[in-house]
């Protein structure tokens, strides 16, 4: 196991917004990243959407500070033409989900962390929620 996970946009938002259902588990994940027991990545294409959501929730200045900390804490996978073409060739699910799947597979991630594992049913990388990952790491 590489101890490497890819976070979907909902999981990244769970990190920032305490009122979200997955917040507590996402914070435990972030603690593991900060303790170097877990490597977490996010797709670069998700970051503008995360920023927009956070600006509406916490204001532009705080959202910018949060985004700076997020980029420091997580690996950011680049998305180029080849990734987009691979994602398009997958042919099922949303384009954003397919891009994340391709990035996770290219990096040999262990898991995609998502609140919607069913969206990744055809992925070579297992998709689980943050709570399940925490339980697996505790074993």
Radius of gyration: 14 Å
What is the SS-derived class?
A: alpha/beta
- The mean pLDDT is 93
Unreliable stretches covering 5 or more consecutive residues: none
Name the strands of the widest sheet in spatial order: 3-2-1-4-5
Main pleated sheet: 5 strands, parallel
What gross morphology would you assign?
globular
Helical proportion, percent range: 55-70%
What is the helix tally?
7
Compressed to H and E, one letter per element, the order equals: EHHEHHEHHEEH
- The number of distinct β-strands equals 5
Strand content range: 5-15%
Termini distance? 14 Å
Fold and architecture overview:
It is a single chain. The chain contains 7 helices and 5 strands. It has helices spanning 9-16, 23-34, 47-58, 60-73, 81-90, 95-106, 130-138; strands at 4-7, 39-43, 75-77, 111-113, 126-128. Helix 1 (9-16) packs parallel to helix 3 (47-58), helix 2 packs across helix 7 and helix 3 packs antiparallel against helix 4. The protein is globular and about 40 Å long. The two termini are 14 Å apart.
Q: What are the SSEs and their pairings?
A:
Elements: E1 4-7, H1 9-16, H2 23-34, E2 39-43, H3 47-58, H4 60-73, E3 75-77, H5 81-90, H6 95-106, E4 111-113, E5 126-128, H7 130-138
Parallel strand pairs: 1-2, 1-4, 2-3, 4-5
Features:
139 residues; alpha/beta; 5 strands; globular
